[in-house]
Write a structure and sequence with these properties.
The protein has about 190 residues and is an all-alpha fold. It has one domain. It contains nine helices and no strands. Helix 4 packs across helix 5, helix 6 packs across helix 8 and helix 7 packs across helix 9.
Length: about 190
């Protein structure tokens, strides 16, 4: 089934749209609060389609992701009981928040770097940092560093790989897409207990 090939073509059309930087900025902002789709899904094709703007796109993604993180922090800090906790309970994310609190206890501020750079859901940690009243300035600085490293790495790989990488990606996109789906389902089944 060639589902991911069609999706890739659609994403590449969006990547060259004149409003793509605005969409990237909005996606980066909301992804740090609640949005489940990683920014990389939009950033990578944009950097690949217009490599001369790759660093600008990485900068936008970093800036708006950290602004979203600040908003998430403020939600956890000021609106936990009336707004965030009911949402968490409705979505069944209580275990994720408890795990995030445990990670904060184990690793302190470094958990923000880990969550901001890796595929771990950053949004859980932005809200939890506010809930736990983590020192705000280190939260922002570490978020800038982690998110910046991640998004500049993604853009850099797209610039470096260029057309060769795109050809390979198109060749294997459906296999890679289905492998990601299988990995996500397996991770969900392993982590839901």
């Amino acid at each position: 089934m060639r589902l991911f090939s069609r999706l890739y073509r659609q994403v590449m059309m969006w990547a060259v749209h004149r409003h793509a930087p605005v969409y990237l900025s909005m996606t980066s902002f909301v992804e740090s609060i609640f949005w489940p789709v990683p920014v990389d899904v939009m950033l990578a094709p944009m950097a690949l389609a217009k490599p001369e703007l790759a660093w600008r796109y990485a900068s936008l993604a970093t800036l708006f992701s950290v602004l979203g993180a600040v908003f998430g922090y403020l939600l956890g800090y000021a609106l936990w009981e009336p707004l965030v906790e009911p949402f968490i309970n409705t979505m069944g994310y209580q275990d994720k928040i408890l795990l995030a609190q445990q990670w904060f206890s184990d690793w302190g501020v470094w958990v923000i770097f880990i969550a901001s750079f890796t595929p771990i859901p950053y949004k859980v940690f932005t809200v939890t940092a506010g809930l736990l009243q983590m020192a705000f300035l280190p939260f922002v600085v570490i978020s800038l560093v982690g998110r910046g490293m991640r998004f500049f790495l993604v853009s850099g790989l797209m610039v470096w790989g260029g057309v060769r990488m795109e050809r390979k990606l198109i060749q294997y996109i459906d296999i890679l897409g289905w492998l990601c789906v299988v990995a996500a389902v397996a991770a969900y089944l392993l982590l839901r207990h």
